[in-house]
Amino acid sequence: MSEVENMYQGIFVTETVLGNPNGSFVNNEPRNIDGRVFTTDKCIKYNIRNYLQQEYEETDSLKNFVFFFPRKTEDSEDYKASYMTKTNVFKEYFDSDFEKLIENCVDARIFGGTFSFKGGGERSIYGPIQISYGLDLIGADLMNLRVGTPFASEEGKQKTTGNNRVVDHAVISYDITVNPKNTPGLLKKSDLEKFKEAIVKGTNLRKSTSKKTDSKILLMIKFKDGKTLNIGELKHLIEIDSEKITDPKERPKKLEINLKKVKEKLDDFNEDIDEIKLYLDKNVEIKNFFDESNEIQIKEKAFSEL
Hints:
With 306 residues, the protein is α+β, with helices and mostly antiparallel strands. It has one domain (8-305). 20% of the residues lie in helices and 34% in strands. The protein contains 6 helices and 15 strands. It has helices at residues 41-55, 86-94, 98-104, 106-111, 189-205, 260-267, and strands at 8-19, 32-33, 36-39, 112-117, 121-126, 129-131, 134-136, 142-152, 158-178, 213-223, 239-240, 255-258, 273-280, 284-287, 297-302. The strands form 3 sheets. Strands 1, 2, 3, 6, 7, 8, 9, 10, 13 and 15 form a 10-stranded mixed β-sheet that branches. Strands 11-12-14 form a 3-stranded mixed β-sheet, with no helix packed on it. Strand 4 and strand 5 form a beta hairpin. The longest helix has 17 residues, at 189-205.
């Protein structure tokens, strides 16, 4: 199984219309600082792990096992949240063998993690793939929707049970870094391909009334052999040319993403870049990125090609 040797940087962009891209633990309100919406890396990592667990995991053979994923205890009843501890998963599936865990757990090879087991000490692995916090680019507004129930109160009136907190329209960008030298020999080429597939399809897979986010672009920049560098954050350089959607009836509507500043940044590193792959949702229009005179090979691909 061949290992990843080259470094990569990437950008991942999502869009949320009347949904919650990442709720806080306090009241499930979209995470924000003074109204400026942001997201943590954890929400994207959950989407990836959830997709890998559903699509690739073979529990009996431990192939593509997802370690950091909730697993119910054997005696747990249906519809009851009773989950195994990290130590019990380690013992039951991997016989408390850490090397066996790393060999079989795809998410551990991708993201690393802190592995603390009762009576077994603690180990930390700095994962080869890191995802930044996400930043809203379009000025999302927070909305507080009252949620009712079909059951009546004792007075015979419909009972209101709580709030549903969403954004009207958010476009959120994340930085991705892939540095196999963080833990040499850990990340496999097949892991990287699964990561790219899962970040796009796993985000689209997670749909509910509150959590409703769509993948829009995944840009992956591969640096040449032997290059060890990071050209800085790119997510702040993305500009959204389309207007914010305030009326859901306007959907579907193409999202216009201006990558002029991203391209200008990459042009300064032409001799360091091997290739660029840009995966797109069909409802996205990219501006100021493709140039016939560009020295770097840019491959445009649809999400279906992941």
